[in-house]
UniProtKB/TrEMBL annotation:
Family matches, as Pfam families: Polyketide_cyc
Superkingdom of the organism of origin: Bacteria
Listed InterPro entries: COQ10_START, START-like_dom_sf
Location of the Coenzyme Q-binding protein COQ10 START domain: 10-133
Name of the featured protein: Cyclase/dehydrase
Length: 155
C-alpha cells in the first residue's frame, strides 16, 4: 500500500475553508487545467454517501472513477473511497484543523495500484509525483480563494 500526504497552512478560519469545499463548483475549481479529467457528477456535498464521478483519460482511453464519501465530521474531516476506478484501492481523507485562527488543510491518501507490489515499485514514485503536482495546485487555489474571502469578511 502506498501513501501520500500534502499539507498547507491557510490564513483563514476553518469554517471558511470547510465552506469553500462545500461549493457546488468545487471540483471544477480544484481540477488542474492540465489534467485530462471530466467531472461527470457530484451528489450529496460532503456528507457520508455523497458520490463524485469523474472520467479520466489514460492516453486515449476514458476510465470512469467513482468515489463515495465514507466519513464526514463537519469542520474537521471528510473521507472518500474509490468504488470504481483505475486503482486497486484508494482512500482519501481531507482534514481541517485550527491553528491560531488559521487552518491546517491536510490531504492523506492511501492507495494500491493494480498489478500489486511490482507495479507499486515501478510506478509508485510517478503516481506520487502526479499527486504532488495536483495537490500543490489544489492547495494553492484553496489558499488564494479562502484568504481572499477571509480578508473580505474580517476587514
Amino acid at each position: 500500500m502506498l501513501k501520500f500526504e500534502y499539507s498547507s497552512l491557510i490564513n483563514a478560519p476553518v469554517d471558511i475553508v470547510w465552506n469553500f469545499h462545500e461549493r457546488k463548483d468545487i471540483l471544477k475549481l480544484l481540477t488542474p487545467p492540465w489534467q485530462p479529467v471530466q467531472i461527470v457528477r457530484r451528489e450529496g456535498g460532503l456528507k457520508v454517501g455523497a458520490i463524485t464521478e469523474f472520467r479520466i483519460f489514460l492516453g486515449l482511453i476514458p476510465v470512469t472513477w467513482i468515489a463515495r464519501h465514507i466519513a464526514c465530521e463537519p469542520y474537521q474531516l471528510f473521507t472518500d473511497q474509490q468504488i470504481q476506478g483505475p486503482m486497486e484501492s484508494w482512500i482519501h481523507r481531507h482534514q481541517f484543523s485550527s491553528q491560531n485562527g488559521q487552518t491546517r488543510l491536510t490531504d492523506y491518501i492511501t492507495y494500491e495500484l493494480p498489478g500489486g507490489l511490482l507495479a507499486e515499485l515501478l510506478l509508485g514514485w510517478w503516481v506520487n509525483s502526479r499527486l504532488q503536482d495536483m495537490f500543490h495546485y489544489r492547495h494553492l487555489v484553496t489558499k488564494q480563494e479562502c484568504e481572499k474571502l477571509a480578508n473580505y469578511q474580517y476587514n
